Structures are given as structure tokens and as C-alpha cells.
């Protein structure tokens, strides 16, 4: 059973547009929600992260919106660039702090 | 710093063969973990370790063994490879601490095919 559900599976956006990726979870004991970016042939790399006591976090063009009551969080990429083309994974850390549960990934393509 | 180093990058096994995937980190991280990445499944935790001599199971531990004799190294052993273990394997490490914004550092992966 997937602990973190991610959508869409793939996304195509024009350069300059906004990319939005959504994730949902059920376990209210999750205490930390990171997003990872992965380029082909590489390992994932931390992009941005949020804690459940914060509703929004922004770093440059990347913003996480977090809705604790709905148990949903999303990644917004403003002014999307071709260099943002990658696979994005949301994740949640379990209450013991020892396990991360990842979503199934979203393949983002930004068209010039 | 090299970060997290995984070897080999590619490996082909026959069903029933055994092998060890190597993982080493030079950041003095207490926490180390192994994930497998499969299409449509995301990353799934196989085993993890919170320090030398301490290991535990993740979501999909069957068919894999681990040990942690040093802080730096965390090898993953496939005892008797099966086609279902065909996947890309990633090792990741992090500084431990509940109060920090934990960052997993991933290696570049090992692509394993079991025929």
C-alpha cells in the first residue's frame, strides 16, 4: 500500500509556466515532508522540504503548499525552465524518524 | 568530499547468484539506507541503519541482508538473486536528528538485472 500518493505521473509545461505536483498521505504521524529532484542517471537530490506546522515554504521559484487538515501537500514551480525537466518525488518521514516513504514520482518536461 | 559512493554502477546476475552492492559515505553520517527504484513504484526502503552495529528492516526487506560494521560502509547483500530483484538500487545517508530538516544524500545508483 502506497503511503504517499503522488499525481500526476507525468506533466508537460511550457517554458515560463507553472508546474504543480500534488501529494496526499493518510498517516498523521508523519513529521517532515521533503521533495526530491532526480535527473536521468543520477540519484535524487533534496529540493525543498516543509514541516506540518507550516502552511507554505518558498525557496526561489519552488514553493511547497501544505494543507494539514486535508493531508495534502503540493510543489509549485514558478516560471518553469527547460532545466527543471526531471523526475520529482514527494516524501514523508515516519514518526520513528527512521523511514521515508516516497511517492511514485512525476516526470516533468518543460518545453522551450 | 566524495559524498555517497556506490559500486558497481551496473551488474547482470543469473537467477540464484549472490552478490554484494557496496555503499560508502565520507560525511560521518550516522544514518544510512538502501532503496530500490522501480517504474511506477517510486523509491522503496529496503533496510536502514542508525549507526554501526544497528540495522533494521524497511518496506521491502525480503531477499536482502545488510550489516553495518563501520560508520562509513553499508553493504547490501542479495543472497539468491531473483528476476523480481531487477531494479535500480540507491544508497542514501543523512545526519541524524529529529529536530533538523533531514537531508538524504543519495549515491548515483546501481542498475541490477537478474536474468
- Derived structural class of chain B: mainly beta
Number of strands of chain A: 11
Task: Output the structural class of chain A.
Answer: mainly beta
Task: Specify which chain pair forms the largest interface.
Answer: A-B, 27 and 27 residues
Helix content of chain B: under 10%
One letter per element, helices H and strands E, the order of chain B comes to EEEEEEEEEEE
Q: Give the helix level of chain A as a range of percent.
A: under 10%
State the separation between the terminal residues of chain B, measured CA to CA: 36 Å
Low-pLDDT segments of chain A: none
Shape of chain B, please?
A: globular
Flag low-confidence runs of chain B: none
Number of helices of chain A: 0
Strand content of chain A: over 45%
Give your account of this protein's structure:
Chain A has no helices and eleven strands. Chain A is mostly beta strands and 112 residues long. Chain B is mainly beta. Chain B is 0% helix and 50% strand. Chain B has strands spanning 4-7, 10-13, 19-25, 31-38, 42-51, 54-57, 64-66, 76-78, 87-94, 105-106, 110-114. The termini of chain B are far apart. Chain A binds chain B through residues 2, 6, 9, 31-32, 34, 36, 41-46, 49, 51, 89, 91, 93, 97-105, and chain B through 4, 31, 33, 35, 40-45, 48, 50, 56, 58-59, 90, 92, 96, 98, 101-104, 106-109.
Keywords:
heterodimer, A: mainly beta, 6-stranded mixed sheet, 5-stranded antiparallel sheet, B: 115 residues, 4-stranded antiparallel sheet
In short:
Chain A has 112 residues and is mostly beta strands. In chain A, 0% of the residues lie in helices and 54% in strands. Chain A has strands spanning 4-7, 10-14, 19-25, 33-38, 45-50, 56-59, 62-67, 72-77, 86-93, 100-102, 106-111.
Amino acid at each position: 500500500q502506497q503511503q504517499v500518493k503522488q499525481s500526476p505521473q507525468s506533466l508537460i509545461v511550457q517554458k515560463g509556466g507553472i508546474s504543480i505536483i500534488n501529494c496526499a498521505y493518510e498517516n498523521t504521524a508523519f513529521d517532515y515532508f521533503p521533495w526530491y529532484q532526480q535527473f536521468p542517471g543520477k540519484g535524487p537530490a533534496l529540493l525543498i522540504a516543509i514541516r506540518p506546522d507550516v502552511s507554505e515554504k518558498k525557496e526561489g521559484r519552488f514553493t511547497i503548499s501544505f494543507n494539514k487538515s486535508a493531508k495534502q501537500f503540493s510543489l509549485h514551480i514558478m516560471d518553469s525552465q527547460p532545466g527543471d525537466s526531471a523526475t520529482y518525488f514527494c516524501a514523508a518521514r515516519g514518526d520513528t524518524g527512521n523511514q521515508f516513504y516516497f511517492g511514485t514520482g512525476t516526470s516533468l518536461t518543460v518545453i522551450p | 568530499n566524495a559524498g555517497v559512493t556506490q559500486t558497481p554502477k551496473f551488474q547482470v546476475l543469473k537467477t540464484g547468484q549472490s552478490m554484494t552492492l557496496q555503499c560508502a559515505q565520507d560525511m560521518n553520517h550516522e544514518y544510512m539506507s538502501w532503496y530500490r527504484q522501480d517504474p511506477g513504484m517510486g523509491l522503496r526502503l529496503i533496510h536502514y541503519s542508525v549507526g554501526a552495529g544497528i540495522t533494521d528492516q524497511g518496506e521491502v526487506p525480503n531477499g536482502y541482508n545488510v550489516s553495518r560494521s563501520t560508520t562509513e560502509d553499508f553493504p547490501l547483500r542479495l543472497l539468491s538473486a531473483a528476476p523480481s530483484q531487477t531494479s535500480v538500487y540507491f544508497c542514501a545517508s543523512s545526519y541524524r536528528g529529529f529536530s533538523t530538516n533531514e537531508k538524504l544524500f543519495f549515491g548515483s545508483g546501481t542498475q541490477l538485472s537478474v536474468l
